[in-house]
Design the sequence.
């Protein structure tokens, strides 16, 4: 069985950009996907001053880790907000204790590497909006569905 190892240079990858409302905005370079990773994901994120990454959330299947490579900001965790800066590394468990949100509270861009196991399916819990997301694959952004927790149904609902 032959195996190909893909070497990618970060400068050769394009930025993907996303923005939602006035608060959430980021750019991302998908390193893990570009290198052919299957079980470990890695992305470089950049958050502009005053913006946040994703909504405050945790995963049930995938552990994540964050390494700040440039700038500073705040990491929102269950125990409160903590300052983060270049060189800081954080492991985020696949549990409510791993809930997190990155906030750029500085006046310069904040860059960090985000690593993740790639277990699927994954379930994400969004604590501020009371939503649950089910993800088939992090490689395919179209493979997800979200539910509001208060709209739960019985196991046999609709089964005849």
Sequence:
């Amino acid at each position: 069985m032959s195996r190909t190892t893909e070497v990618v240079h970060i400068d050769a990858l394009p930025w993907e950009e996303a923005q939602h409302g006035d608060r959430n905005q980021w750019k991302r370079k998908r390193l893990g996907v570009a290198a052919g990773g299957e079980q470990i994901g890695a992305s470089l994120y950049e958050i502009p001053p005053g913006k946040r990454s994703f909504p405050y959330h945790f995963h049930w299947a995938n552990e994540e880790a964050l390494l700040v490579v440039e700038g500073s900001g705040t990491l929102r965790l269950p125990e409160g907000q903590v300052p983060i800066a270049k060189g800081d590394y954080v492991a985020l468990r696949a549990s409510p204790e791993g809930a997190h949100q990155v906030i750029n509270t500085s006046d310069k861009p904040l860059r960090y590497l985000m690593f993740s196991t790639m277990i699927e399916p994954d379930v994400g819990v969004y604590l501020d909006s009371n939503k649950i997301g089910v993800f088939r694959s992090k490689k395919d952004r179209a493979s997800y569905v979200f539910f509001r927790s208060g709209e739960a149904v019985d196991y046999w609902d609709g089964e005849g």
Helices lie at 31-34. The first helix runs from residue 31 to 34. The chain has one helix and 13 strands. The mean pLDDT is 91.
